[in-house]
Structures are given as C-alpha cells and as structure tokens.
Amino acid sequence: MYSVVKYKDIIDLQDEDTIKRYRLIEQLSKGFTVAHKIAQEMDHLLTEQLELTAGKPHNDDETDDEDTGDDHMPVPPVTSRKPQSRTAISTELETAFRDLFAALKDQKPQIIRYELPQVTTPEMEKPEIDSFQQIVDDLVLGSNVFLVGGAGTGKTYLAEVLVAHKALGRQHITINCSQWTSPIEIIGGQSMDGYVEGKLIEAWQRGYVLVLDELPKIDPNTAGLFNDALAKSKTPNAIIFNARKESFTKHPDFACIATGNVYPNRDSMAYGANNKQDLSLLDRFSGSVYLIEKNPKIERRIIQNDMLWSVCDKLRSAVEELKYEAQLSLRFMQNARDAYLLEMQRHKSEGSDGVKANEGKTFRSAIDSYLSTFTDVQQQNLKQRINYPGLFSNYQYRALPTGKLI
Ligand SMILES: Nc1ncnc2c1ncn2[C@@H]1O[C@H](COP(=O)(O)OP(=O)(O)OP(=O)(O)O)[C@@H](O)[C@H]1O
Ligand SMILES: [Mg+2]
User: Fold this and answer.
1) Whose CA is nearest to atom 13 of ligand 1?
2) Where are the alpha helices (H) located in 219-291, listed in sequence order?
3) Closest approach atom of ligand 1 to CA 329
4) Of residues 20, 310, 291, the one with CA closest to residue 129
5) Which of 26, 199, 243, 341 could form a disulfide with 188 if both were Cys (CB 3.0 to 4.6 A apart)?
6) pTM (two decimals)
7) What share of the chain is helix, strand, coil (3-state, %, to 5)?
8) Distance of CA 290 from the midpoint of ligand 2 (Å)
C-alpha cells in the first residue's frame, strides 16, 4: 500500500520540483492503493530526498515502520541503487516515475471504496443500557453482535424489541438454539409438509435481524452452518446457498444478534447445557461481544413498585452473597409484581362476595415458590436476610406505601 501521509507536514517547505512530484504522486494514489514496487521505490527515494534536504542522513537499514504510522505496508528495501545526492535522487525519481506510468498504463488499479451506511435510528427514547448505541452501530456497520449475560437480564428483549424493532425499525426472525436445533431450521430442508425455507435464508434475503437466541446451546456441528453467512454479513450482495443449493443474495438490512448465558469458549458450572463452540464461529462476533448485566434502573422502571423491587433485590443479593447456584431474574420480578397486583385488588375488595385476599396467588406465595427450590437450610438463611418473618407473617407489606424503599 502506498502512503502519502508522512510528507504532508513538510512538503510545502520543499522546492517547486519536489512539491510538483509529490502532488503527482498524491494524485496518483488518490482513491486507490498501489501495491506496486515502483511506487514504493519512489516513496523511498522521495523520503531520501526530503531527508537530505532536511540535513538528516538517510539510513537504509531503517525500517519504514518507524516514522510512517501503521497505515501502509513496510516498504521493501530499494533495489541495489543507493543514490547519495539530491541530483542523483532526482534523476532516479524521474526514471522511476516514467516506469510507474508505463507500468500502470496497462494495469487497472484496484479501487477500494468504503461506503458507510447511514445510521437512521427511528425516534426512540434510548434505554439505559450502557452499550446500546454501540450495539446499534455494530449492526448498522454489518458486524455480528453477541450479547452475554445471566438468565433474565433482558438479552432477548434487547435484541428483538429494543434493537431490531425500535432502534433499527426492522423485523426479526429468531432461532431458539438448543442441541435439537436442526439444519432445516437454519438453511431449509424437507419436512413432513414439503420443503421449508431456513430462517437464516429468510433473514438473509429479506433483510431481517436474525436473532440466534441462546446460541451457545446449539450443537457445535450444526453451528458450523452459520459460519459462511456470518463471515459475509458486511459484504454487499454476498451470496449463500440453501439446502437445495439455490443461491440467495444478501439484503442490505440483514443483521445478526446472538445471545447466550456464557461466552461459549469455556465451561460453566451454572449453565451446563451450553456447548463450547468452534473458535471460527466465535471469530464472527469478535469485537462485538457485550456483557448484559442486571440493571436496577431498568428493573425499577419496569416493576414500578420500589417495595417489591427492593424485596426481590435483597433476595437476589443474598443468593449471590451466599454463593447459591441460582438466579433471581427480572422475569421473576415481573411475575411477583403481577401476583402482587392481583392480590392487592382482592385485598381492596375483601369481604364483598366472599373475596379473600390470601386466596390465590400473592406476592408472598411467589417468594415462597422461589424459595422452595432451595434446601431447608438455605431457605432459612435467605429468609433471615430479607427479614421474611417481619415482612410476611401478617402480610405487613400490604400496608407499606408502594413507592417506599424498605
Ligand atoms: N428494557 C425492558 N423493558 C421492558 N421489559 C423488559 C426489558 N428488558 C427485559 N424485559 C423483560 O424482562 C424479562 C426477561 O427478559 P429476557 O427474556 O429478554 O431475558 P434474557 O436475558 O433473554 O433471559 P434468558 O437468558 O433466560 O433467555 C422478559 O419478560 C422481558 O420482557
Ligand atoms: Mg433470552
């Protein structure tokens, strides 16, 4: 690759001839990169000339990497010629310049264009998720995104609703990955009802966001079917093939988000059903992996009741501190909140038509049900931490103002 960057600060101080030569080279290299020996040789000669002018002896042993930044390839040593003076270099340059023109006359330079897509995010209130804009940017740029986080932290919702639908304004199509996910679901195949098209193919040709939910759970051999497509997410008009070997051209809106409880390159005690995946698959997401953690701000906004959130949060902290292998997710909080709303409705109309507040699902029964998955000793420890007796013995919490944190 030919670089002109290194002269730009000093070129205007040079004599007319040098400036002219430089401008020509600059023009020549505009819009394309020249991986050409003569151009590199000219580059080297010009450097020598400039250094001579500046009074700095040129050292042929110097590697070019030192002063040129990393935006071009190292220039190979100039052939056997080692001009010593400005005039000698000038003559060499003229010859090299003629050679370059002659050489380039019959050679089509490779034009490399980067057209960055427009980021047009529909008007939406940005959620309080740290990496939200980065995730959207990645997808707009055609990078595949991997969201990693504990159960119920909101990965699937983030992928399907917030990013695909709200931020990008695109439809999504989801593959719920497990060891039973079949190639038919991915690239199509024969079913009892005839040929069905794969979801990867559908998303690819229609420009949907492909959500690979719980990707680490998929069989690593099946996962290999994504490799070809996901390597080409950035390539305009890239082609992939379905199970019938029919070709499909990529729609510019195709994007891919994978989710998982663990990044699938290591074993996890808590998430045993995940498989280790090939590094080739993981490479498709490298640089675009985001950790999605519990987010109290979002939880509180969703639950809309600080008292309930606070009890759940205390319980979750206790589980974490005591290192019990369990999760308390936003999903549980939502269920507990729904139970509470129903319970309070009954509580208000208690007595009329024989309605009893304690009958049916209550906030307490939701917590009890959660606790029942622990051993007796663990339950006692957890109850102590959340002041269970005080809070639940007489359903004290019903008297608490809902907005008050306890
Ligand atoms: N920003 C949000 N606004 C509203 N609801 C949300 C938000 N984030 C998550 N939720 C809700 O929280 C619950 C858990 O979210 P979600 O299913 O996306 O979690 P997850 O991280 O994919 O969990 P898992 O690892 O178990 O699949 C869902 O009911 C979802 O609708
Ligand atoms: Mg999920």
Assistant:
1) 331
2) 220-223, 227-231, 279-283
3) 14
4) 291
5) 243
6) 0.69
7) 45, 10, 45
8) 14
Instruction: Indicate the top mutation candidate among 128, 153, 166, 330 to test ligand 1's pocket, ranked by most ligand atoms within 8 A of CB.
Output: 330
Q: Which two tokens stand for residue 30?
A: 């505009």
Tell me 165's DSSP state. Answer: I
Provide the residues around ligand 2 (an ion) whose CB is within 5 A.
156
Ligand 1 centroid – CA 154 distance (Å): 3
Return the C-alpha torsion angle 43, 45, 49, 50, nearest 10: 20
Ligand nearest to the backbone CA of 158: 1
Residue nearest to atom 31 of ligand 1 (CA): 157
Best mutation site among 331, 332, 333, 337 for ligand 1, i.e. most ligand atoms within 8 A of its Cβ?
331
Q: Are 176 and 218 in contact (CB under 8 A)?
A: no
Q: Which residue has a Cα nearest atom 1 of ligand 1?
A: 298
CATH fit for domain 132-291, picks 3.40.920.10, 3.40.50.2300, 3.40.50.10800, 3.40.50.300: 3.40.50.300
pLDDT in tens, 173-192: 999 999 999 999 999 999 99
pLDDT tens column, 373-395: 999 999 999 999 999 998 888 78
Among protein residues, the one whose CA lies closest to atom 3 of ligand 1: 302
Domain parsing of the chain, residue ranges: 5-105, 132-291, 296-399
**Does ligand 1 come within 6 angstroms of the Cβ of 261?**
yes
